[in-house]
Specification:
Elements (H helix, E strand, L loop, with lengths): L15 H11 L5 E5 L10 H6 L3 E5 L3 H13 L9 E6 L3 H9 L5 E5 L1
Length: 114
């Protein structure tokens, strides 16, 4: 894996495939790797090591909707600052630019205002 320097939440230069392969290769024989969320990768991870070491890979989507009502109340009450994640705001006409910013990794998540 190439060396990177972390410069804060906007620094998202880690290749998802490299991260998955690193997790598989760091796991002890007979243990598990769990992937949360959906990751876009250009090719399949290295599964040969997984098979030879009897490593289980599990995964699923993050149950974010279950937490939204409580988190929204915390945001409204001022107890939780969403700006580290929602770091770009666009109007409806700016949605394509928001998707492009997330694709280029210059934004983590984009908030769309009417």
């Amino acid at each position: 894996m190439r060396a990177t320097v972390y410069h804060g939440p906007r620094d998202m230069r880690i290749d998802p495939l490299e991260a998955i392969n690193m997790a598989i290769h760091m796991t002890r024989p007979g243990r598990s790797v769990s992937l949360v969320g959906f990751t876009h990768v250009s090719q399949a991870p290295d599964l040969t090591h997984r098979l030879l070491q009897n490593i289980t890979i599990t995964g699923g989507v993050a149950p974010a909707r279950a937490y939204l009502p409580e988190l929204l109340q915390d945001v409204i009450a001022g107890k939780l600052d969403p700006s580290p994640v929602l770091d770009m705001t666009v109007d409806l006409d700016g949605v394509p630019a928001g998707y492009a910013a997330m694709d280029k990794r210059s934004a983590i998540k984009v908030m769309v205002l009417p």
